[in-house]
Design a protein that fits this description.
By secondary structure, this protein is α/β, with parallel strands linked by helices. It has one domain. 36% of the residues lie in helices and 15% in strands. Helix 5 runs parallel beside helix 6 and helix 6 crosses helix 7.
Length: 233
């Protein structure tokens, strides 16, 4: 896979996104200094709103490659067209994509950036478990993980220029998973939990979902935690 790619197209798109974010949000970014100057880097963020990807396109380095699901049932057409315009690594939600793993590996091996939403979709506004693919990509490539918390995008188009805060944490990892079978899956699940806790620390307490200290909030989050996209495959 060629890396970097689509430089001119992405520069134009990034400019348009920056203008749109300025027009429609009151955006505050904390921790920008935590973004490493070079990769390999696997950037992860919570996913509560269909427009979250535009934030990461604006904030992360221009050469960042993103993993994106092929199904976006709740998004308007302009958001559904964004993956094609930007050029993403396609993933069919709820499945293991060897091609996506291979392309991610190629980017990270070239000291590149890969962005992903570990929850696998934006069907709820509280933090849910990570799908195993993100941890697998991280362990296969010995890549540090950059956690990002997005707060306020759920108010986009509901309020005039809502306050949107993006908090960028310090990188964690790299991690390894050297087990086999069920043992390896447990290791990946544990790494996924560590990743989501790192994101949770960057969110307001009421949005931490399954990673909240409040048992009532954890129980409420369990009701929306199940991955809903299997039926679309």
């Amino acid at each position: 896979m060629q890396y970097p790619r689509y430089s001119l197209r992405r520069t134009i798109l990034r400019f348009l996104i920056d203008v749109s974010l300025f027009a429609f949000t009151d955006l505050k970014i904390e921790g920008r200094e935590n973004i490493p100057a070079t990769g390999p880097c696997l950037a992860i963020a919570n996913h509560f709103h269909f427009a979250d990807p535009v934030l990461l396109i604006s904030i992360l380095p221009p050469q960042t490659e993103f993993l994106a699901g092929t199904q976006n049932p709740s998004a308007p057409w302009i958001v559904k067209s964004l993956p094609g315009l930007y050029g993403v690594i396609r993933v069919k939600r709820g499945t293991a994509s060897r091609e996506a793993l291979r392309q991610s590996e190629q980017v990270l091996q070239q000291n590149g950036f890969v962005g992903v939403f570990p929850e696998g979709g934006s069907w709820a506004d509280v933090l849910r478990p990570a799908r195993p693919g993100t941890a697998l990509i991280a362990t296969l490539n010995n890549a540090p993980i950059l956690p990002i918390g997005i707060d306020g995008m759920t108010q986009l188009f509901k309020q005039r220029r809502p306050q949107v805060t993006v908090r960028i944490g310090q990188a964690i990892g790299p991690f390894s998973a050297d087990g086999r079978g069920k043992q390896r899956r447990r290791q990946l699940d544990n790494i996924g939990e560590t990743m989501m806790k790192a994101i949770a620390d960057l969110l307001p307490p009421g949005q931490r979902g399954l990673y909240s200290d409040d048992p009532v909030l954890r129980e409420a989050a369990r009701k929306v935690a199940d991955f809903p996209y299997h039926e679309l495959n």
